[in-house]
Amino acid sequence: MPTPVIAIFDIGKTNKKLFLFDQHYRIVWERSVQLPETVDEDGDPCEDIQGLTNWVLETTEIALALPQFTVLALNFTTYGASFVYVDARGQQVGPLYNYLKPFPDAIRERFLQQYGPANALSLQTASPWLDSLNSGLMLYRIKYDKPELFQRIRYALHLPQYVSYLITGQIASDLTSIGCHTMLWDFGAGRYHDWVVSEGLDRLLGPLFPADEGMDATQPKPEDAEPNTARSLRVGVGLHDSSAALIPYLASFHEPFILISTGTWCISMNPFIETEGTGPALTADELQHDCLCYMHYRGKSVKASRLFSGYEHEQQTKRLAAHFGVDVDHYKQVRYNASIINQLQEAAQPVHSESGSITGPAKMMSLKESPFGQRDLSRFANYETAYHQLMLDLMAGQVLSTALVLPHNEVEQPAVTRIFVDGGFSQNPLYMNLLAKAFPQVEVWAASVAQATALGAALAFHDQWNPQPVPPNLITLTHYQRLHR
């Protein structure tokens, strides 16, 4: 008897994956690939959208034909901030521009003259000004910088919805993608921002479709199957990956918590803070420190803050390896040493930046680099001590970043009782012990979830295909208690 499963595409910038989950949300089959990038018409690197399209269609066909499984449903989660464009005939047109693509100064100035100031727009849309990383600004840029392409565009689909469209042929938008630092959504008003309507861009966005509801698609029957054996398949509209990664935690825990999802970016998310009335979801100060809002798949805003410390850790461990003559991953052998931490904190020295100004861990406000990059490595006796200093510097930024999503008034907002950490830093004993020391008032847990983003996309779709209850043991936890001197 074939095992009933749900198929989930999890498409990242580097790795593209397809998983089959059984009804207990165990991974029973998977396929992954790394696709080479291409370049757009300006020579900037970008996703090879045709290569991705071919891989999705081919891999879907393979999964549906597996005799040991019956695929009952299909859903998608991908990186965000990226539009795919479709013409009036339903054909993909133009590149899938990279969200790091340089943004023209003239287009930025034109936009701000029409719809600025930037701070007011960021407050209303809960989106820091991020140029091409604001997908709404990218669409505006195409309208005025690439008018020939713009004339060909009938629909702009965020990447999760484009991948869904490949299977269903249905145009749709999803709140988790629209509400993710796109500058498209007015969080206070609960609709597209006025500038989007003024530019007519709302007409290019498909109708909003609930992420926990399904569309019907006909599953192709194998060539050797009996006639009339094609089955209907429930297919989701797809979710933005950061929103999807939160879903296993919301399914498992009901007391207020913060999730720090760690990777290249360390994103602190609080889904339990309520915004007041129709006012802005964030303050101007929070936006200055890279706060933003994601949208939960059921329409609720999720307050978040971002820190570029995963990338910074990668760069600085390369620097440490070169200086001390060790392997790049030598940090994995370093264990937390409270004595070294205490010595470094007691002898803390200010860091002089190239501009001559003095910075220190307590004043580190940069979200893209830590003070460690300006430290003289020759002052450290060994790799172990230097690495402890790196983690102290990174943690200073993490504390500032995570504190931004803690409730400021626990009379009006629910108190956070736990901090969960998933991703790479959850396996780093220095990071976890320093975090527990920094937040002694809450429980700090390292969390392990097999493919959390893909699992979230499956759980969002649970009612569409799975008659079993959601299992209670989806997440493995390790408690870190504050270590005293």
From TrEMBL:
Kinase recorded as keyword: yes
All copies of domain Carbohydrate kinase FGGY N-terminal, residue ranges: 6-197
InterPro entries reported for this sequence: ATPase_NBD (IPR043129), FGGY_C_2 (IPR049382), FGGY_N (IPR018484)
Cellular component terms per the entry's GO annotation: cytosol
Domain of life: Bacteria
Gene Ontology biological process terms, A to Z: xylulose metabolic process
GO molecular function: D-xylulokinase activity
Pfam families registered for this protein in UniProt: FGGY_C_2, FGGY_N
Domain Carbohydrate kinase FGGY C-terminal: 255-463
Keywords of this entry: Kinase, Transferase
PANTHER family listed in its UniProt record: SUGAR KINASE (PTHR10196), XYLULOSE KINASE (PTHR10196:SF57)
Protein family membership: Belongs to the FGGY kinase family.
Protein name per its UniProtKB record: Carbohydrate kinase
Upper taxonomic lineage: Bacteria, Pseudomonadati, Bacteroidota, Cytophagia, Cytophagales
